[in-house]
Amino acid sequence: MTDSMSAASARRTALAAQGFARPRPATVGTRQLASAIDRLGLVQLDSVNVFERSHYLPLFARLGAFDRALLDRLTFAKTARYTEYWAHEAALIPVDTWPLLRWRMDDRRAKDDADESSWSRANGPMLDWLRAEIADKGPLTVREVEHDATARRGPWWGWSDVKIGLEKLFAWGELVSAGRSRFERRYALPEQALPHAVIAARVDRADAQRALVERAALAHGVGTAGDLADYFRMPVAATLAAIRDLVDDGILLPTAVDGWRAPAWRHRDARTPRRVDAVALLSPFDPVVWARPRAERLFDFHYRIEIYTPAPQRKFGYYSLPLLVDDDVVGRIDLKSDRQNGVLLVQSAWIEEGAPADTAERAAPRLLEAAAWQGLERVEVVGRGSLAPGLAGVLASSGGAR
Q: Which helix (H) or strand (E) holds 324?
């Protein structure tokens, strides 16, 4: 039996699964941060820091301003309850997710081993030295290992080879993250950073993939096979096999969503609120929008990040953040933190067709909150776009901008 759902209900279901139907907490501490990360299942990492590093933004969008040092201690401390791996892209994950990705680690090693021209086949001594170096000295960043490599082995083993070797061992699961230092990953042997029970856990490939698909379904609320596969970058065939098992067990419910061409499934624990009351600036790597086809299907919102687009060809801006108002994505705002002058710059702001008339009034307080969260004194609208004049007017009248 297949349930049916309107497109609007699917949108609210998806946002509720992502935590946007919950009231913001009065204060944000470790418990609230951990609960939000666990609900998402993973938080994507990215090095771009023009406004704020991306992994802070999904938590800010859902919870409001928080002490970033709290999140750093929760995720980047040597023995944190979260670790890193290639889950979606490079991402923070609960440590109990790490064993569910061993099949990916094994596949990456097997691929390298089978390729006679691979870097790892040609650089076995380097890999052995890296293993021994970290076993002897404990967790190290690339820079720290590269310094030792240069001092002990000469220029043949320079930064590039060190980085490649560490990343190979990380991809294979021989090394893990022991946190970050100035956003540089600190590489460690598993026993130096993960609980023994996590290291010892062995999960059958099919069972692990089923568990990942269920976590993806919880995070989506409702989604297609492509949606569920994309969340942890799963093979589609394996995702479909997992879906069949989860349907047989009553965990996933086949659901026809109005306007969706592909079949969909709803997690049995997903809820559909009557309304979503939210205003949020979304990272380009937020799960709500990171899968661009899903964002178009849910919100009729065409989104492409323009970081790698030459400046004259950018339409919306270098780091344009989608603007969520209630249950729809209604605009995009290109932000830059001018830390030297204490200003949050709105470099451009655009409104989508059909957006509410009060979009600028709803968005302005979030910009002021974002500036305060960043330790900036004011917001300045300096850019172009159909939403920019309205934002400038509202911010000027509030005294928070010029």
A: strand 320-325
CA distances from 332 to 45, 275, 322, 378, 401 (A): 21, 22, 4, 20, 19
Confidence at 183, pLDDT banded by 50, 70, 90: confident
> DSSP class of residue 9?
H
Tokens matching residue 152: 């002990």
CB 120 within 8 A of CB 112: yes
- Whether the pLDDT of residue 368 is over 70: the answer is yes
The token pair at 178 is 């022991």
Q: Give the residue from 80, 281, 308 showing the smallest Cα distance to 180.
A: 80
CA atoms within 13 A on the CB side of 101: 29
**What are 81-86's contacts with CB under 8 Å, separation 24+?**
81/34, 82/37, 83/176, 83/177, 83/193, 83/194, 84/45, 84/176, 84/177, 84/185, 85/170, 85/176, 85/177, 86/171, 86/233
Pairing verdict, β 328-338 and 320-325: antiparallel
Q: CA 353 → CA 278, 303, 313, 324, 347, distances in Å?
A: 19, 14, 22, 14, 20
The percentage of residues in the chain with a pLDDT greater than 90, rounded to a whole number, is: 85
Residue 401, pLDDT > 70, answer no
C-alpha 279/C-alpha 61 separation (Å) is 8
Dig out the tokens for 161 from the structure: 């080879």
